[in-house]
Design a protein that fits this description.
alpha/beta, D-Maltodextrin-Binding Protein, domain 2, eleven-stranded mixed sheet
């Protein structure tokens, strides 16, 4: 897919410094900010980049451009970031796995996170949902009945994900390996093409952030503010939070259904080129924290079943380390490698 650039325009806005970051608001020293996005148009990272970009216009720079660079497990996006000046005029919005999991997953990764990615701030997080589509009979309405159906239909026992080594893929490994199934992973280059495959019956199961699934559920399962897209074509069987999601209260958690190790939240974050200074990273994080506190941004994120979760650069670095400790052993023990 060709890369896509979108110019986001807006009025200048006064800002207040968030606690724990720079005490003076970032001045509008920059004419333009480019946010490189690791996902294609319509994907979760694309949505996050655009919504933050709209709010950052007039706060961090006069104009904000979202530059979609999907593919190659984020390596295309990171390569674009590496070639950018480290002055704060170019950011990367990508999934946390770019910094935490992909160095283990891919033997020949074209970047080194510690060298090439300067942490700025967390951006958003969300629950994952397990959905089935028209390839699965209508009487499959729980994880137990899904596992039973997959066991009885091994030729159709497959699960799609937005990419090898992503958290959705890892959750599938945890669910179906734990159940002792012989199943097939079907990776796609992002959430939108995986969703098309599920809706078209090419795959049986898909794990994605629940906000991408909600518009396609039966009307009775959708919140009142969910868009009426292809409603009724999918069924969500479980969510990955410790407690039921407020966006889909009628869907039981995976923990409720006996998958006690399945608690995880997908998250996305902003990074600068590795050569950027700590001061530039703090300035950028201050801007992210400022706009994340706006009620309008919070409302728009809730409409997509996700939550803005800004942070300091140090907190983002700690989150990357936490994910490495939590999920890299699973990648290794399951033999998951990039390109599978």
């Amino acid at each position: 897919m060709p890369r896509r650039r979108v110019l986001i325009a807006g009025a200048a806005a006064a800002i207040c410094s968030p606690a724990g970051l720079a005490q003076t608001p970032p001045a509008l020293k920059r004419e333009r900010l480019r946010i490189i996005c690791s996902g294609p148009a319509g994907s979760v990272p694309d949505t996050i980049a655009r919504r933050f970009g709209e709010e950052l216009t007039g706060v961090f720079a006069q104009h904000v451009v979202v530059d979609n660079r999907p593919g190659a497990a984020g390596q295309i996006a990171v390569q674009a970031l590496k070639s950018a000046p480290p002055d704060g005029s170019t950011w990367l919005l990508g999934q946390g796995a770019l910094a935490s999991l992909y160095p283990t997953l891919y033997e020949k990764l074209a970047y080194e996170p510690a060298r090439d990615l300067r942490p700025v701030s967390l951006a958003a997080e969300m629950n994952l949902g397990v959905a089935v589509g028209p390839a699965v009979p209508a009487d499959v309405d729980s994880m137990a009945s899904l596992v039973d159906w997959m066991r009885r239909n091994p030729a159709a026992a497959n699960a799609a994900s937005p990419g090898t080594g992503t958290l959705p893929h890892i959750l599938e490994v945890m669910l179906f390996d734990q159940a002792g199934l012989n199943w097939r992973h079907v990776p796609y280059p992002g959430g939108p093409p995986a969703m098309v495959a599920l809706l078209g019956g090419q795959v049986a199961v898909l794990v994605l952030p629940e906000g991408l699934l909600l518009p396609h559920l039966a009307q009775s399962e959708r919140p009142a503010n969910a868009a009426d897209a292809a409603g009724g074509r999918l069924r969500m069987l479980g969510t990955s939070g410790l407690e039921r999601s407020r966006f889909s209260q009628g869907v039981p958690t995976l923990v409720e259904q006996g998958y006690t190790r399945s608690v995880m939240r997908e998250w996305f974050a902003f990074f600068l080129p590795g050569g950027a200074s700590a001061g530039v990273a703090e300035e950028a994080a201050a801007a992210v924290n400022t706009v994340a506190a706006r009620a309008e941004l919070g409302r728009r994120f809730e409409d997509a079943a996700m939550v803005a979760v800004p942070s300091t650069p140090a907190q983002l670095a700690a989150k990357v380390d936490d994910d490495r400790r939590a999920w890299v052993p699973l990648l290794v023990s399951a033999g998951i490698r990039g390109g599978a």
